């Protein structure tokens, strides 16, 4: 079985991380390793995709945009993965809600992709799938993504109108950044909320 | 290495009687997709010699250079030639100075564009702007103005037929000077197919210059975007630089100066793609500081002297024209001075 092997693989580093944590952090688990892995995977997927989308415009300015984009993806996936793993360790129910929301987002995104495909001449079925994946990532963190997108769009349009050298590209860039930062922050906020008492609860118990 | 030189691919459909050196992306998946676009276009058009009368131009006089996205015939090319270059088309075409034009979104409309082939892919019909008056295709402009022409179509423009005529679009090079040794660099697939179109231009005093007309993609498809981030134009810029280097490394290849220009679809001159091209073409003129499509600086001219510059130096008086001649891009113009060799 791949999952138990994966859990054994990540247990060591997590235990080490727990041992080095300051006292105001806790390491605990409700004992369901499957929800921890599922939460971490969902968070990593959502955060990674959101990070990639957030890096689209800034990385256009890089001489090596692929490395830049990979950095954004990994940072997003890291934050999302840790947050998701934590949520999975604390609340199976909340994890289920997020997974359902991600599935709805994926479905809506894929439907949009399928509808768009005949009208965008260079789209393939892979592009429809990619739109579904982006929809799923947003669906897994809908509140944060929506707030971030709205704030980013408003800020971007303001920049565009106020600063003479700013362009519509800057507005779009700020909106996408907002979406990404909002969505990833949504994962962190969710992780903080399910922990209760203001404590950050990490997903593995220290057991010898 | 991402590019193959001389590999047969699309040329089976587009070259016919024109000997063209092809450089194509190595990625097999990209190749399949690009070939499906390629099957839908007509043959390359190559008219090596101009018939226009060039009065008063001495063998080493400056040559006017222009880069322009003509927006599928919406841009009034004949009016541009007449007003900006002083080139009169018609029964006895006439101009007082030599000219070299690097054009994007040129179109050809005739019977040579094939009816549907198996596995061929067309884009939807593009009409970016309504033309003022008659849309004139690139072959007719070349013919009526007595210019030499290289036209390499990239994609079929829609499935529709008008009176048995079908339409494709791509990059073109028009000149009063003779052209030879055409080459095509298929850029990595990011969205629709793009082919950098190149040729060697012979000047009256015997020296030669390599010229390239470029058109980069605006934005990748979502799948490419997730896989590579926003690196479309940088990937295309790097592939172009690599293809040029590979071509120059071919046995017997001429080591001459290279002029490249086109619609790079750049949103800023801080973009990675623009900076990569400036590095690959270190003798390029400095950006003139003005946008050429809306508020975006999309259209540029690049230059490198190469190992045998032959007296060619950085183009001068580089500037956008104030009017767009009904295209969605403003043309940019510069002058090539011919110094002593």
**What share of the residues of chain A does DSSP label as strand, in percent?**
under 5%
Largest interface: A-B, 35 and 28 residues
Count every helix of chain A, treating DSSP H or I runs of 4 or more residues as helices. 8
Low-confidence stretches of chain A: 197-201, 203-208
- Overall number of strands of chain A: 2
Oligomer kind: heterodimer
What shape does the CA trace of chain B take? globular
Which H/E pattern describes the elements of chain B? EHEHEEEHEEHEEEEEHHEHEEE
Strand content of chain B: 25-35%
Structure overview:
The complex is a heterodimer of chains A (208) and B (341). Chain A has eight helices and two strands. Chain A has 208 residues and is mainly α. The two termini of chain A are 23 Å apart. The model of chain A is unreliable at 197-201 and 203-208 (pLDDT under 50). Chain B is α+β, with helices and mostly antiparallel strands and 341 residues long. In chain B, 19% of the residues lie in helices and 29% in strands. Chain B has seven helices and 16 strands. The two termini of chain B are 35 Å apart. The mean pLDDT of chain B is 89. The A-B interface holds A 49, 52, 55-57, 59-66, 68-70, 72-73, 113, 119-124, 126-127, 129-131, 133-134, 167-169 and B 33, 121-124, 191-192, 221-223, 225-226, 228-231, 233-234, 267-268, 270-273, 275-276, 295-296.
Write the layout of secondary structure elements.
The complex is a heterodimer of chains A (208) and B (341).
Chain A: H1 2-19, E1 26-27, H2 33-54, H3 56-60, H4 65-90, H5 92-116, H6 125-140, H7 142-162, H8 168-195, E2 201-202
Parallel strand pairs in A: 1-2
Helix pairs in contact in A: 2-4, 2-5, 2-6, 2-8, 4-8, 5-6, 7-8
Chain B: E1 3-5, H1 11-14, E2 21-25, H2 28-38, E3 45-47, E4 53-54, E5 63-69, H3 77-85, E6 94-95, E7 99-110, H4 138-145, E8 148-156, E9 166-175, E10 179-186, E11 195-202, E12 208-215, H5 222-228, H6 232-248, E13 258-263, H7 272-280, E14 299-304, E15 316-320, E16 332-336
Parallel strand pairs in B: 2-10, 4-6, 5-7, 12-13
Antiparallel strand pairs in B: 1-2, 3-8, 5-16, 7-9, 8-9, 10-11, 11-12, 13-14, 15-16
Helix pairs in contact in B: 6-7
